[in-house]
Sequence to fold (165 residues):
Amino acid sequence: MVRRRRRDRHRHGPNRRAATAFGPHVLVAAPRGAAAKAWRADPRSDPGCAGAVAAALVTGERAPIPAWVETAMRNSGLTHLLSISGLHIAVVAGLAFLTVRKTLLLNPWVGLHWPVKAIAILASAIAALAYTLLSGASWPTVRACLATLVVLLGTLAGRQAISCG
Fold:
């Protein structure tokens, strides 16, 4: 009877705690899996090959990439493009900034009466944070996101990008 209790406690205790763990990885697990699945299921591409590379670019999940594709990318020096880095975060933040700013400036009244640049910076920061969470929030990605947020905060404060002279 004692053995059975130990086994039951061992079998159900840690798994139950792990299932109820809370953190950023739990919040974005379903959207991240859905995004990767959608990119891999592209009917126009080679089954699993191009979709797996696209999913790796969006979510950072490199497991579904075939070995021969990863070898070819390593031999050509393109493997670093698959790891989510500062380049990816900056591109997402920059595209969000330009899209929101240009969209708001389509209306002349909004462009004259609203703080369009500040709104675009806020949207850019939200996009950078969302992409960081979607990509799995590894430490290098979080570091790149923090650097992007510092640049956005400096831009919001009115700092110039180049302050020589």
